[in-house]
Write a structure and sequence with these properties.
Helix content is 48%, strand content 12%. The chain is of the alpha+beta class.
Length: 66
């Protein structure tokens, strides 16, 4: 079984466990499976970055912080 097939099958098993018992407080999941399911936060862009960029203006070719 290839990695993607394994991760997909494991994610499906987790989804089935949650569907069968939706009040489960937690299911132990392998970190690779959790990452495949999108559990980890993406650090590429954060709210602080967006706010900081919103405070920038360009004035005659120079970047100015307001």
């Amino acid at each position: 079984m290839h990695d993607k097939e394994y991760l997909s099958a494991a994610a499906l098993a987790v989804a089935q466990q949650l569907a069968e018992n939706p009040v489960i407080l937690g299911i132990p999941i392998d970190p690779d499976v959790a990452d495949f399911m999108g559990a980890f936060r993406e650090d590429a862009l954060e709210l602080a970055d967006v706010i900081e960029d919103g405070l920038l203006t360009v004035n005659q070719g120079e970047v100015v912080y307001d």
